[in-house]
Amino acid sequence: xxxxxxxxxxxxxxxNIELGYSYNVKGVAFDHSIELRIAVPTATNGVQSPDTxxxxxYIAKWRxxxxxxxxxxxxxxxxxxxxxxxxxxxxxxxLQFPEYALVAEAAGLRISALYDYRxxxxxxxxxxxxxxxxxFGNINGVALSATDTWxxxxxxxxxxxxxxxxxxxx
Length: 170
Prior knowledge:
The protein is mostly beta strands.
């Protein structure tokens, strides 16, 4: 994680380590998975995630020739909260479509628009949302994604966020 303070130089540190288990069922036209994760406390070089969280996911994807649509359900709940840290409890939904293949030669590389929102249980049901796009796919057995999102209105989920991920199977 890298932070960019208003004054001073950017700095990086280790943060938000998660351990998890995933059960996936893949089909021709429909995939789905259930995931359970635990996010452990980290604090390095000013990057802090002091609470321990339990996370549960259900992800469904429908595919057709030339496209698809996916919806991810996530529930995060703080299970160990040290003094001075905040409690987290929210539901997040993420809709991605149309999962369009960029070029026929790179069918594993796709682009989608996305809508992401959170309902904060610990804040009386406050809803925050964002829109954006994502580029994702598989290259030589490694799943890659790059996501760019912007918050909507005064209650935007964030002002701007860029994420990049690489996942390999062991």
